[in-house]
């Protein structure tokens, strides 16, 4: 009994003696005192579920992971990534469930022509390094090896993604991508719903181009315990490396709840320190369908900088709560 504030949460701990551990990065001074009983599960750092990585004999000579099918797999309980695959082609992953991992549920680097016609479910991810972060389903260029021509993820298509209990960072994440589509994205108890961001890899830049999302149903965190972040964020945290813009992004209709900007833990800093339920920066060509915002915080839209060619079918907002001195539906920057 006692300290029930930790129920259904993940934390980084330091074992100080055979009977005691400390909570790293968590201020528990206001929690009820622990007395007895209870159970906890632990993850060991640097352990992966499915881990596939390229081999290289030079900066441009790689061995691809080809035609891998991991459909129907359940992966859980790893201190790093549940599924981490580098340089994959023709990956198939229908009806995959990944949970209870510290850093990322699924991380695909430079993936080409991945298909998922079933449901991808990722849950209970984070906190990762330093007691923060946690990625649900993430795509990026290869960032770890000195390959100068690492391709951006390309031609990847997913029918349905459901991410829940990822309160330390993002449900669905793209650090560069070309020609990706997602049919439906659903989130519950996540900080970011969907992050769209240019990413470096091998010393060059890769923007997000030709991305489409059919529909969405996004719900953020309980602001009593966690930061509230954007439902959709396009280059919201840092200015894109280089000069490439994100282009041709289409987001369909849906509802987002409990998104916007409300700092509780203070681990994410936005470009203007505030953020928004939909934060847009450095994009050319953005189409949004019928957007419903419910119980959001601070700002509805923030068109921050270098934003061109935006269309929105309709917007409905119910209960936009003030944060500090901010309570505004639209903020439009000088170059938007």
Brief summary:
This protein has 336 residues and is an all-beta fold. Helix content is 0%, strand content 53%. The protein has a 17-stranded parallel sheet that branches. The chain has a two-stranded antiparallel ribbon with strand order 1-2. It has a two-stranded antiparallel ribbon with strand order 4-5.
3D architecture notes:
The protein is mostly beta strands and 336 residues long. The protein has no helices and 25 strands. It has strands at residues 12-17, 20-24, 50-52, 56-58, 61-62, 65-66, 74-78, 81-86, 88-89, 96-101, 104-109, 115-125, 135-140, 157-175, 177-197, 199-201, 204-206, 208-219, 232-234, 246-257, 278-280, 283-297, 299-303, 307-321, 328-332. It is globular. Mean pLDDT is 82; it is low at 42-46.
Number of helices: 0
| Cα distance spanning the termini | 54 Å
- Could you tell me the strand content as a percent range? over 45%
- The oligomerization state is single chain
What's the structural blueprint in terms of helices and strands?
Elements: E1 12-17, E2 20-24, E3 50-52, E4 56-58, E5 61-62, E6 65-66, E7 74-78, E8 81-86, E9 88-89, E10 96-101, E11 104-109, E12 115-125, E13 135-140, E14 157-175, E15 177-197, E16 199-201, E17 204-206, E18 208-219, E19 232-234, E20 246-257, E21 278-280, E22 283-297, E23 299-303, E24 307-321, E25 328-332
Parallel strand pairs: 3-8, 6-9, 7-10, 8-11, 10-12, 11-13, 12-14, 13-14, 14-15, 15-18, 15-19, 18-20, 19-21, 20-22, 21-23, 22-24, 23-25
Antiparallel strand pairs: 1-2, 4-5, 16-17
